[in-house]
Amino acid sequence: MAPLHFFLILFAHSIRQANGNHENCPSSFTCGNFGTFQYPFTMAEHPECGLLPIQGCLLNATSPKLIQLGNNSKSVNLTAVVETNKIITIYDDGFHTSLDHNECDTLHNNYTLPPPSPSLSMYIKYNVTLFKCNHNLSTKPPSNYVNLGCRVPYGYEIYYDRNNTHPDQEAAGVFSGCSVVQFASKDSTNTKDVLSFVSAEMTLEIVLSHDCDDCFNHRGGLCGVDNNNHFYCHKGSSGTNRLVKKMGLALALGNRVTITNSRVTAAAAEAPKNDERSIPLPSPSASPIIMEALLLPSATQKL
């Protein structure tokens, strides 16, 4: 029985390794004056526990908090929590500086958030729509549209609606040959200062993908993405069941296996003459792994 005993010890160790540090992830954490956060947010000190790490939670309550919106993206200021774990506001200092320094160069492309991943997406809730036109308009734009005057030296014009309304049919026709760019908007606008209607403070809505929501909220796992950008559920119930089934197959010829948190023992008993085998029920204090394990009575039984 020594080889079987060795296998069980190795298998139990591999399960602990697979779970890694995720077993130590808190269900929630407090971050200064913003209150309590849950998944997909996490403290920067525990990046393995979530998708959106926040820096500064261990500092005093009023210290600035920074949030990283993507693996390779810069950190921006977290300024408010509108709806717990769903809607936040951020402030991008770099975007504000760029906008203040050169509005035409800054506004010719959309403000970029990290692209949607297999785990989550995020959206700017309140937008202002601008039109970037590389040619002279053949039709005069509606009176509520203002030209920012970027033709020289950039070679394009940028128009925006001072009322910040959704473009109507007339505007859609006039700007049909122009590019649409969108930015976070402010409540008030005027015709002179671009900083009055485009904001570096943005309200973001965080949306878990269907797979990630199912993984975290229904299977008790944590969402992950592999090197091929494919979603996987770490420590979810399906993954655990697959490991347990493999264990059951390997132990198919054994009569009884008892697993505890500190050691693994295996005992083989002679089969009854009528070839019936008994499988003892685990005690309530047994490891959660054995509570789900199915030890097969025959090596030929299919999983």
From TrEMBL:
Signal peptide: 1-20
Molecular function per GO: ATP binding; kinase activity
Keywords, ordered alphabetically: ATP-binding, Nucleotide-binding, Signal
Record protein name field: Wall-associated receptor kinase galacturonan-binding domain-containing protein
Originating organism: Arachis hypogaea
Species classification: Eukaryota, Viridiplantae, Streptophyta, Embryophyta, Tracheophyta
